[in-house]
Specification:
390 residues; Rossmann fold; Hypothetical protein af1432; five-stranded parallel sheet; 16 helices
Length: 390
């Protein structure tokens, strides 16, 4: 079977929407005439007008003059970078502005700077290259948002079937990671959430009795502790084989590293050199382990704060702040299986009448889960009253 190159095939730059910004109308008219046969050309006479246009028009490349009143080109393109990071930015400068343009490039604000007068064929080629850069960035995000997401969903679904306890813990830890990402204003938390979900894949190697003890926060024997300690390495090795997830695998492998570096092996980063995903994951996992013993949230947080060297202070403070001001789940309550609704969260582990874990606490109620509980309840293999919150 032959597959096409899909989203990574080279795109035609014809009709790609671009934006030209200059306060001299004659220059804009000239540039439009040169470029309109190749691109869909939008124009603006100032940075403010261009920013307003960008709110309603999809654009992949912006070309701006450096010298403009009120807002110069470097400042304008910096604003574009903040608001529309995928838009590729090109700066047109005169000879006197060269140093300013170099500064803008070094600060990462623009893709290219071109000196005026710029030959039409050079400008055409550079814009075409910028369009291709935008296409690659967009294709990468599409890959992460579709193919890799489906891969992650398949792996975690397998985990949920093979080891419900490990899956339940992964769900709870991921929920905390998501909350921390929001509190820290992380712009794209997807890789953090993926790191959290996949970090528990190694749990499939643990015997069910060891997983149950780990999930309940009960002490492990020396041999059992060694099994549990191998989970990050096993999870790392499984994820490292997936293209584009190398960074996720690295963070998974370092998830037990302390922020202060104490006890870390040679070559393991510390402090802010440790990936943010690894820093957040360690705190979220330790928070869940503390809560597994059913103390109060504040007791768990107090225990974490007593060993602050283990955690990024900024991440730990985000956890403190979140739980100081939020109790969104509300107190738990018992509901009949017939009264369960999607979106509720299981508060306690649900076991069958013969002691097999059916649903791990922290699992969100879905329609398939309700149907499964109804089937077990009809056979009198599970209690009809389920404790939930939310």
């Amino acid at each position: 079977m032959t597959f096409s190159n899909g989203p990574l095939a080279r795109a035609d730059t014809d009709a790609a929407p671009i934006l030209l910004v200059d306060d001299e109308i004659a220059i804009l008219d000239g540039l439009r005439r040169q470029l309109r046969k190749k691109f869909t050309v939008h124009t603006a006479n100032s940075g403010a007008e261009a920013l307003e246009l960008l709110q309603s028009q999809p654009v992949v490349v912006v070309v701006s003059d450096m010298r403009m009143p009120q807002m110069d080109g470097a400042t304008f393109l910096s604003r574009v970078r903040s608001l529309y990071p995928d838009v590729v930015r090109i700066l047109l400068t005169g000879q006197a502005d060269t140093q300013s343009a170099i500064t803008a490039v070094n600060e990462g604000q623009i893709y290219r700077f071109l000196t005026k007068p710029c030959p039409p064929e050079v400008l055409m080629e550079e814009i075409g290259s910028a369009v291709e850069i935008n296409r690659l960035v967009t294709a990468e995000k599409e890959l992460l948002g579709t193919t890799l997401r489906r891969t992650v969903e398949a792996l975690t679904a397998t985990l949920s079937l093979a080891q419900p306890a490990a899956f339940g813990r992964a769900v709870r830890v991921t929920r905390t990671v998501t909350e921390l990402a929001e509190a820290l204003a992380v712009e794209e938390p997807w890789d953090l959430e993926v790191t959290a979900m996949l970090s528990h894949l190694g749990g499939v190697t643990l015997p069910p009795n060891v997983l149950a003890k780990l999930d309940a926060g009960r002490p492990l024997t020396e041999d059992e502790a060694e099994m549990a300690d191998r989970i990050p390495l096993i999870s790392h090795d499984l994820v490292a084989t997936i293209p584009r997830l190398e960074g996720v695998a690295e963070a998974i492998g370092w998830q037990r590293a302390r922020y202060d570096g104490e006890g870390s092996a040679p070559g393991v980063p510390r402090g802010d050199d440790l990936p943010l995903a690894a820093r957040i994951l360690r705190l979220a996992a330790d928070f869940d382990a503390g809560m597994s013993q059913r103390p109060s949230v504040q007791d768990t947080i107090s225990s974490l704060r007593a060993d602050e060297g283990a955690y990024d202070p900024r991440v730990l403070q985000a956890l403190v702040d979140f739980h100081d001001v939020t109790d969104a789940q509300g107190p738990p309550r018992d509901v009949d299986v017939d009264d369960l609704a999607p979106g509720l969260v299981v508060f306690d582990d649900v076991f069958t009448s013969d002691g097999v874990l059916l649903i791990s606490r922290g699992t969100e109620v879905t329609d398939p889960l309700i149907r499964r509980l109804e089937n077990y309840a009809q056979q009198k293999r599970v209690a009809r009253r389920i404790r939930v919150h939310g």
